[in-house]
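Subject: design request, 208 residues
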């Protein structure tokens, strides 16, 4: 029997495809409010549409996934601080000194519009705000999208330069020889005791 899920644990992260299906369902409901949806058939149609979409068309939904990841990590940190158990993942620890990845056009757009949306809708959850941002971005004009795309390209160019310096510094560290261990001075060579040799020879002479 599976363990009972903690109701206080944050909701898991959603994939770009999950956001796409959710958007399709909302659109279908607006256009056909009285129609009963057969989820199996609807899911097949969504999968077909998703497969035919190019990366540019999927980008909005994938960006929403990235936002949801940030939401999930923040809520998990708060959950663990209150005594909850963290989800075990074999994720490689990130270097805190590594340059931050450049923000996409959608993320830059969200940074400008998230604050006003929260002020105007204080009762909405982080997930709901993310949905509203995704909807506003989808309704943006070509000119507005270009403004944020240009800003994103500038950030990418800066990131490439900073990343090259970071990689060069990491390579220099990995190639530098390890610090030599401090060598102990060699032990002095013990010289034979000449006086004892003389005493031995004298004793031999006396015995003769």
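Subject: RE: design request

Done. Sequence follows.
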């Amino acid at each position: 029997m599976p363990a009972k899920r903690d109701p206080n644990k944050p909701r898991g992260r959603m994939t770009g495809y999950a956001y796409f299906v959710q958007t399709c369902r909302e659109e279908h409901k607006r256009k056909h409010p009285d129609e009963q949806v057969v989820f199996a058939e609807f899911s097949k149609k969504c999968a077909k549409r998703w497969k035919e979409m190019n990366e540019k068309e999927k980008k909005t939904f994938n960006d929403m996934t990235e936002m949801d990841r940030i939401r999930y990590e923040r809520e998990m940190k708060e959950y663990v601080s209150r005594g909850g158990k963290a989800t075990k993942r074999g994720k490689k620890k990130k270097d805190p000194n590594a340059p931050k990845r450049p923000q996409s056009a959608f993320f830059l757009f969200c940074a400008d519009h998230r604050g006003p949306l929260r002020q105007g809708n204080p009762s909405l959850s982080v997930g709901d705000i993310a949905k509203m941002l995704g909807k506003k971005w989808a309704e943006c004009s070509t000119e507005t999208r270009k403004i944020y795309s240009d800003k994103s390209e500038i950030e990418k160019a800066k990131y490439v330069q900073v990343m090259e310096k970071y990689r060069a510094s990491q390579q220099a560290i990995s190639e530098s020889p390890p610090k030599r261990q401090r060598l102990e001075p060699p032990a002095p060579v013990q010289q034979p005791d000449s006086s004892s040799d003389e005493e031995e020879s004298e004793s031999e002479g006396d015995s003769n």
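The mean pLDDT is 78.
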